[in-house]
Amino acid sequence: MGERLEFAEKTETDASNPFIPKFESFLNEKCIKDIQRLVENYPQKRSLSVDFKDIELFDFELADELLINPDYVLEAANEAIKNIDVPALELENFAPHIRVFNLPQEQQPLLRNISAAHLGKLILVEGVVGQLTEVLPKLKIATWECTRCGNTYKIPQSEHQSKPPYICECKHRSFNLVAEDSEFVDYQKIKTQEPLEKLKGSEIAATLDIFASDDLVNQVSPGAKTRITGILRLLPPKDKKTVYGKYLEAVHIEETMQEFDDIEITPEDEKEIRELAAKPDIYELLVKSVAPTIYGHETIKEAISLQLFGGVKKILPGESKIRGNIHVLLVGDPGLAKSQILTAVHNIAPKSIYIAGKTTTGAGISATAVKDDFGEGGWTLKAGALVLANGGICLIDELDKMDAEDRSALHESLEQQKISVAKAGIVTTFKTETSVLSAANPKFSRFDQYTSFIEQINLPPTLISRFDLFFMMKDVLDRKKDEDIAKHILKTHQIGEKMWLERKMKKKMSAKDKEELERSITPAINLELFKKYLSYARQNIFPVLTQESIQALSDFYIGLRDQGRKEGNYAATHRQLEGLVRLSEASARVRLSDVVELKDTERAIRLVKTSLQEVVTDPETGKIDIDIITSGQTHTQITNLKKILRIIKDKSSEIDDGMVPIEDVIGESKTEGIDSDKVREILTKLEKAGDIYRPRHGVVKPTSKR
Known about the structure:
Helix content is 39%, strand content 21%. It is of the alpha/beta class and 706 residues long. Among the domains are: 7-102, mini-chromosome maintenance (MCM) complex, chain A, domain 1, CATH 3.30.1640.10; 111-255, CATH 2.40.50.140; 316-480, P-loop containing nucleotide triphosphate hydrolases (Rossmann fold, 3-Layer(aba) Sandwich); 635-702, Winged helix-like DNA-binding domain superfamily/Winged helix DNA-binding domain (Arc Repressor Mutant, subunit A, Orthogonal Bundle).
């Protein structure tokens, strides 16, 4: 083996770096206790986080140079911390990192505004983690061995491709990497995208790749909102092109809160919010502020208002959780502005994602494993809509047109508020603490008033049962209502035309037109104030049930159960009770109240009763039957089905070949009060379920005698 040569050009540079003594003074004055704690926990903890504002107050020239020339200054900082005299600083290979955070506002560009001017500069970006790789080893200092003479060379690796020596002393140019003598560091790539609440109109969220190393790996998960301080660098192009990519080499990573706390609320805003919440007609104002251009649907708008405020999330002993998010399903005839309502909510909610039917896959809803260049050739997980909307609201249009396999991703998320993923050998769980507002159409385009709700929609009962409220939006042929809707729509178009003329042609609107605009289609609560109101309530108000409200909810729930007890069916389950609690808490939050009062529970009961009466009323008995959405059939249908199956089995046991004529089944069923049409319908269901089969025309036979 030849002589080992080490390249040490950086040693001289470090010694002559004028910022080393400056950082030594700063660390001695501001960070000595933090350094002592770091020493005690080294190497499990390998970084010292430093607030940029502290550096700025200590030496503004040093702070300015750090922003402009971060490589040189951070190198000095990392060298300076080794020279600090603290007890027990006799560690071997003590080489911690200085990680700077909290940069000034001018160094916090939006992802879409990052340009060539930021190259090599220290910046802070904010985004939502959409994808990340597993932790991989990255070559930091490579040991190369000459294949001819055996000389070895240690060379620091700073590029994305390995850098061997150019030529050996023996004039040979072929080298092998000696992995066991080389130094590696943990490495992870993170793809972050702009927070959706900061997008305007139809803008597409910009993305940026983040390269994290050493103790910065595994600091975030998909869907997490993150603030990342780093140095913007160029990514070499492929095929010798002149257009370079860009990435951010992370210096500091901080996961921020993910709920409605993105909006800054000043003391003046808080005063205005409290004045608004104290108004006696606040609930009417909220209804008028949700999709004011759409006529009617007041009950639905009231439900959506409460959904935006949400209930209180509970974490019980043993880490069990009860969700506070409220889910609402709208099923309606075509042309009743369901999509417009969803779009309006998308504009109101501080954080929201809008997706639709056929354009969305199961991977797009939940998460998917992908194998591409981003993952360095390996598998990575990519977050979907529910994960990215964590802490906000997800709006799903045309839910009925989504493929059943894709829609199945919703089941776990709606109730457990998480998505478990096991793909390509990657097993993990994503948080989806997201409210869902969804819209769908009836199976045969329009509702039939003589058929049960569940038979008319192309959604599984197990999915529907996870929604707290479900509303049927029917297109009723009512002349007076039609006149009012036509007047509202036409007036809206007229005002929109006049607003366009004022904006583009500078034609001033008359006072009468402005008054009409204010009265008919302007939200009762200003959009920005509405967002701050929602954010403030969800951050600061956590109402508690009073004994009076508990009694009211209990009485209503027990009353529903009593209705079914007499018939042997179920008019309510614990899901309806928990939904009532969430709606009551949301109602109290609207008033910024710390307690849930009787009027809040009465509002929740009214909404739930409306929802149940519209959707889960048995058309044969006229009574509420929750079995409609839990099993897909009413209690009456289930009872009749069991009766007919019992008739077939009894008659089959009396016949040698076991084949029962259908006419005999119909005749026997009439004594049970079931007419022939229903018998034939039930026979078809039993056949599909595999309980009976038809050996030949006109006869049936049970698949089992028992």
